[in-house]
Amino acid sequence: MSSNYDGPTSPGSIRPSQLITSFGPGSIFQTENDSVLIMGLQNWSKVKKKYKSLHHPVLQGITRKKGFKVPISEGKKEVITCVSFPSWGVCTQCKRLQQHNPVPKNGETEFHCMDCNETLVYARFIVMCDNGHIDEFPWARWAHKNEPEYHDTEEGTCKKPKLYFYSKGRSPGLSNYFIKCVECNSKADVGSAISVNPNGLLELDENYQCSRKRPWLGDVDSRCDQIPYGVQTRASNVYFPSVISAVYVKKWVNEAQQIIRENLESIQDNLQSGYPPEEIAERQHYFKNLKDDPYWTIQRISDEIRRWEDAEKKDYTKSSESEIKKDEYDDMTTTKSYESDDFHLSTEDVHSDISPYVESLKTLKRITELKVIRGFTRGQAADPFSPDSASNVNYCPLSTKNENWLPAVENHGEGIFFTLNSEKLRKWEEENNSVKLRFSAMKKGFLEWAKERRWQPDVELFSPRYVLLHTLAHLMIMELSNSVGYNAASIRERIYGTQGSSGIMLYTSSSSAEGSLGGLVRLGESISFKDLLLRTISRSRRCSRDPLCDEEDPMKKQNMPPISRLNGSACYACCLVPETSCENSNRLLDRQFIHNDEYGFFKDLE
Question: pTM of the full predicted structure?
Answer without folding.
Answer: 0.90
